[in-house]
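Lab meeting minutes (informal)
Scribe: AK
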Amino acid sequence: MKTILNLIWFIFGGFALALGYFLAGVVCCALIVTIPWGIASFRIASYALWPFGRTVVDTGRGGAASALGNIIWLLVAGIWIAIGHVATALAMAATIVGIPLAIANLKLIPVSLMPLGKEIVPSRRLFASYTR
């Protein structure tokens, strides 16, 4: 089932969303100072390409620098990206077929708000947020 949902997601917005995150990552890496956000954008792009069957967990390795980086990201880009995810989720939820896609879009909001110190893991891992 997740393969079918991933294919539908890919066609109806996942590719464009992943491409946007990828291009943001390229820009961030080109600016040298923003490389950590560029790497996070690449990570989000891979998650945005195939969101079904995966989830986001905290790595536990994020310290003060990660928290400060997340606050800067939140103020500069995160809030606008989250608003975009909510708007597209509302549009996707207008149809019955789009409801799982809208939920996947909402699943992207936490990692798009605070991307540093996160890891994307398979959902089938039991208690994914507690294992290392």
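Next up, CB showed the second protein from the same session:
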Amino acid sequence: MNIYLGLVVLVLLVSLLAGLVRVIRGPAPEARLMAGQLLGTTAVAILLVLWGMTGQSAFLDVAMVFAILAAVALVAFVALSNQEAGR
């Protein structure tokens, strides 16, 4: 079972790298934001799989913090975008 979960983590890491490329290369701020959301979601998924593999509750705690930070980053981006559009 742990071999399958390890493969899942590897696939998620590839997804994480693809999102990182999009964050760096752009083309627009919105695309970078969506890639950042992908990074947050993938990080949460990796941490949850690691929690399932090891049973250590620290992975679950950090996954919850990442999920909250991803949501806050989205709200901050939308608020700043609306503020700049009003100028």
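CB comment: The CA atoms of residues 47 and 59 lie 5 Å apart.
No objections, moving on.
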